[in-house]
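Now for a specimen:

…
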Amino acid sequence: MTDSKHEKPEIDAPEGPAPEALEIVDIVVGDGAEATPGAKVDVHYLGVEYDSGEEFDSSWSRGQSINFPLNNLIRGWQEGIPGMKVGGRRKLTVPPQLAYGPAGGGHPLSGKTLIFVIDLLGVS
């Protein structure tokens, strides 16, 4: 399945305690170019809070993908996207230390474990 027009994903509420390390799960393995550390990536993504299951961000909701150098993104993405291939869909469960830091860090998502579903549309 290499169609880059994947529909917005649904994330089931996780069960059990949040993981303490980055979890990477390929939902669809792509067959295009592979993302490398430091690459510029074009992605569609959905982000939800682990504990509440509440969506906090979605490029699908805005109707357009984002294009960023991996180095500008949270560490969970910097570590979780390399190795992914264009056309793929990956779920990252990102603990606070690889997202927005510990609680009280000044960001609304500080201290929270986050789940992202990412479709890789392109790399450069």
About this structure: The beta strands are 23-28, 40-49, 55-58, 66-69, 89-94, 114-123. The chain has one domain: 23-123. DSSP finds two helices and six strands in the chain.
